[in-house]
Amino acid sequence: MKKDNLKNQYRINEKIRAKEVRLVGDNIEEQNVYPLSQALEIAKAQDLDLIEISPNAVPPVCRILDYQKFIYQQKKRQKEQKAKSVRVVVKEIRFGPQTDDHDYNFKLKHAKNFLEEGAKVKAYVFFRGRSILFKEQGEVLLLRFANDLDEYAKVEQMPVLEGKKMNIMLAPKKLAAVQQKKLVKPDRPVEQKTETEEE
Prior knowledge:
Layout: H1 2-8, E1 11-12, E2 20-24, E3 33-35, H2 36-45, E4 49-54, E5 61-65, H3 67-84, E6 90-95, H4 101-116, E7 120-126, H5 135-148, E8 153-162, E9 165-172, H6 174-184, H7 187-198
Parallel strand pairs: 2-5, 6-7
Antiparallel strand pairs: 1-4, 2-3, 4-5, 7-9, 8-9
């Protein structure tokens, strides 16, 4: 389905409806407006296809390329963009309103590991039955949790009660710290350059 969508996204050759088109690309001597019939002749002379790449422009913008190669390049570009897009992983940690210290420390250790790996942490206190009466305890527990992870995470969402759950969202600080270190390292050479420029 996706392949077909990509192929049907562009009009080519005789399927182009405009009377005039603007030709762009490396294989065009002058990037100018041509009647459609003349643009098709130029494409045929080069044994290539006329591809409408910007149909909403006035006149529509076309390129002269091998259509199969063009579709291949578009797919490749989409794959690269997909690979570059960062996937945000959210790990959940569940507490009860009266979680003991051992269990708390165990979950705190896991949260540190998740944050160091670059995942977000969604911690929540689940209230069963009458335990909803202890929602203040739940909030205190989540704020303590966020405070204990202050070195590793920043609070993205303060504790919020949604039904029987009270959630807090924590995002890793590690990525920001790594980026700052990268920015700090090249400062010395940059300063030297600016000094020489001033001289």
